[in-house]
Write a structure and sequence with these properties.
Helix content: 55-70%
Distance between the termini: 45 Å
Low-confidence stretches: none
Number of helices: 9
Largest sheet: none
Oligomer: single chain
Radius of gyration: 19 Å
Number of domains: 1
Order of helices and strands: HHHHHHHHH
Structural class: mainly alpha
Mean pLDDT: 96
Length: about 190
Amino acid sequence: MAEGWRAYWRKWRGTTAGSPPRIAGWEIFWSWLGAALAIGLLAWLAERYFAPRELPLLIASFGASAVLLFGAPRSPLAQPRNLLGGHALSALVGVLFWKLAQVAPAFALPGIPEALTVATAIAVMHLTRTLHPPGGATALTAVIGGPQIHALGFSYVLVPATLGPLILLAVALVFNNLPRTRRYPEFWW
C-alpha cells in the first residue's frame, strides 16, 4: 500500500520533459495583436449594437478562447469544431441546469448547479469531440451570470454563446492565415 502512495505522489513531480519552449518575439506580438483585434471587435459590436438591446455579446470565456485561437492556433482545442461546439453545447447545458435549479429544490442547493453544470459540459464536449476549455466557463456563466444572463434563457445559446465564437472564428481565419508561418484551422470537423 505504501508503494502505491509513493507512486501516486511521484506523479506530482511532473515529467522530465522540462518547461515548454520559448516563443519567438514576433509570434508573441502576433498572438497579442490577433487577440486584441478579436476581443476589441467583439467589445465594439457589443457596445454599439447589442447593449442598446440589452443583449450581452462579450462574456469572459471568450478571453480564454482568444488565448487558444491566437496563442495556440494549432491546438486541437482551438479548432472551429471545438470552438463553436464547445461554447454552444456548454451554454445549452448551463441554461438547462439553471432552469432545473429553478424548479427542483435539490438542484438549487449551494454549489450543486455550478458543479453539475461544469461537469456535465465537460462530459458533453467529450462525447461530441468538441472539448474547448472555455466552454466550461460559458456553462458556468449561464448559472452564475446574474439577472441579465438568466433573462436570456435559451437565447443565451445563440447570443452570446454561438454568435461571439463565430465572430472570433472569422477574425482567426483572416488573421492567422496572414503570415506565411501560421495556418488556421488544422481541421474543421
